[in-house]
Specification:
about 270 residues, alpha/beta, D-Maltodextrin-Binding Protein, domain 2, 2 domains, 9-stranded mixed β-sheet, 10 helices, about 45% helix, binds arginine
Length: about 270
């Protein structure tokens, strides 16, 4: 009799264990890394208008520092890489909606974004600058009052401009920075554009008509890779890749090579 009860308890325990485990391992609960490996590819969202981080090269392919980092992550996972190019302001919704697995777009860590996505460790530090025509006499932010300033929709530059310059300048938001917003500046439609210094450096170095007119070092920000909230295993692998790239000096090499590549290709 006793044995029957014990056996009964064991059977119930095993069944309970299987039910719980099955629930934990049901398809919808698979970890993102498992899903990516099963699919055989990682889908990376970016906004390919921001050289040398990401841009469309002369052959129509995606190139840049972030694309190289994406390749390293795909390699670490042992999967193919698919790049999805979209408006910068659509990236977070696409990540939350599962259309992309990660965002690599020189995206800065901000408290607002942290409410919606998880960030890796930072891999780049930068601040904002105003780029104008070389012929411009703009030297300070006050010189921009009453003028039209271009920013990219959904960026930290847009947020900063709207809080610091609103009322004094007309802020015009663009979906794409390079080449679209840069061309508007060159046409004289805008007095200045507000972009990251690193991006400005490469654009200005290959275009004599443009210069960095004002630097805003107090806007320093840290770029990181965004993963869906709670995707701990994917974040772990992304962090491993970034750490290796930083520690081995490979990131520095990638940055140098990509700057050269962009300036060389476009000039
Ligand atoms: N660092 C800025 C931000 O996080 C701008 C990034 C723009 N990136 C791009 N691929 N267009 O908002």
């Amino acid at each position: 009799m006793k044995i029957k009860i014990i056996l009964g308890i064991i059977v119930v325990a095993i069944v309970a264990f299987l039910v719980v485990n099955n629930l934990l391992l049901s398809p919808s609960e698979k970890s993102l890394v498992e899903k990516i490996k099963e699919r055989g590819k990682i889908i990376v969202g970016t906004s390919a208008d921001w050289p040398p981080f990401e841009y469309i090269d002369s052959s129509g392919g995606y190139a840049g520092i972030d694309i190289e980092i994406a390749k390293e992550i795909a390699k670490k996972l042992g999967v193919e890489l698919e790049i999805k190019d979209m408006g910068f302001d659509s990236l977070i919704a696409a990540l939350k909606g599962g259309q992309i697995d990660i965002i690599i777009a020189d995206m800065a860590i901000t408290p607002e974004r942290e409410l919606e996505v998880d960030f890796s460790m930072p891999y780049f530090i930068d601040y904002f600058v105003f780029v104008t025509l070389s012929s411009s006499d703009v030297k300070s932010i006050e010189d921009l009052y009453g003028e039209k300033i271009g920013v990219q929709t959904g960026t930290t530059q847009e947020e900063w401009a709207n809080s610091v310059l609103a009322g004094n300048c007309t802020i015009v938001s663009y979906e794409r920075v390079f080449p679209e917003m840069v061309l508007e500046l060159k046409k004289g439609e805008l007095k200045a554009i507000l972009i990251g210094k690193f991006v400005a450096d490469v654009i200005v170095s290959m275009d004599n008509d443009l210069k960095i007119a004002i630097e805003v070092p107090e806007t320093t920000e840290y770029a990181a890779i965004a993963v869906p909230q709670g995707a701990e295993d994917l974040k772990f692998i992304v962090n491993q890749v970034i750490k290796e790239l930083l520690e081995t000096g490979k990131l520095k090499q990638i940055v140098e090579a990509e700057v050269e590549e962009f300036i060389g290709v476009k000039s």
